[in-house]
Amino acid sequence: IQMQNEIIDPSIVERDYLIKVATQRVWKCTNRYGWRELCIKRGSRIVYKRSDIENWLESRKGQTLQNTEG
Description:
Radius of gyration: 11 Å
Largest sheet: 3 strands, antiparallel
Structural class: alpha+beta
Number of helices: 3
Shape: globular
Oligomer: single chain
Strand content: 5-15%
Helix content: 40-55%
Mean pLDDT: 90
């Protein structure tokens, strides 16, 4: 059982939600789909709350997301 408030890094987002790390970087830089608001800066690292990612995905059900890599 995964905790909703679990802090996860971009590689876990890629593994669990199939959004490539390179795509996450582009979406953060361009704030595509509001992705930048999901990012939490910890020192020099970017992490996410699992619940934020899941809510973000839920809000986009039925939409096509463009998988853009740098």
